[in-house]
Amino acid sequence: MPQPSHSPVRPVPSLRPAPDVARADAYLESLQLLERLHRLLLDLIKDEFERLGRSDLTPVQALLIYNLGGSEVTAGELRSRGMYQGSNVSYNLKKLVELGYVSHERCDMDRRAVRVRLTSSGQDVRDHVCALFARHAEGLALSGVLDDPAIEAVNLQWRRIERFWLEQIRYIY
């Protein structure tokens, strides 16, 4: 009866280093946290407007008003600087115009484009969202949450990830 060979099995060499599984898991956890944080942000905005007795706006619309701020922009510019999908921003802008929070007018140079800006009612909504965010920032600062690691370092990391993702999108096309 032949004896089994005890020679060690050699792994096939890889052209790429094995991914750091712990790092990959941490990255995936970050993505899940980011997604949950965005949903929680919308819930916080919804609760704030419910407390104010304002049920005419969705949290996404209130956040869109906040991000519009004092600017006068096109829908395309809002898409490029926010987290808005094309049809969503168009639909929400139409609703915000109907509700009187946003005004719009055709661009003189390109009659196909529409420029939008906040009305005084829209500015009131923006002020409420700003006040909410200021209260949150104050509470987080008092609790020390913004210090370890410093929120500036966290933001730097997210900007780097954003830049990486943008490069991935550009690479595809």
Automatic annotation (TrEMBL):
Alphabetized UniProt keyword annotations: DNA-binding, Transcription, Transcription regulation
Pfam annotation, one family: MarR_2
GO biological process: response to stress
PROSITE patterns: HTH_MARR_1 (PS01117), HTH_MARR_2 (PS50995)
Alphabetized GO MF terms: DNA binding; DNA-binding transcription factor activity
Keyword Magnesium found: no
Transcription regulation recorded as keyword: yes
Superkingdom of origin: Bacteria
Record-linked SMART domains: HTH_MARR (SM00347)
Residues covered by the HTH marR-type domain: 27-163
InterPro entries: HTH_MarR-typ (IPR000835), MarR/SlyA-like (IPR039422), Tscrpt_reg_MarR-type_CS (IPR023187), WH-like_DNA-bd_sf (IPR036388), WH_DNA-bd_sf (IPR036390)
PANTHER family given in the database record: TRANSCRIPTIONAL REGULATOR, MARR FAMILY, TRANSCRIPTIONAL REGULATORY PROTEIN
Protein name in the entry: Winged helix DNA-binding protein
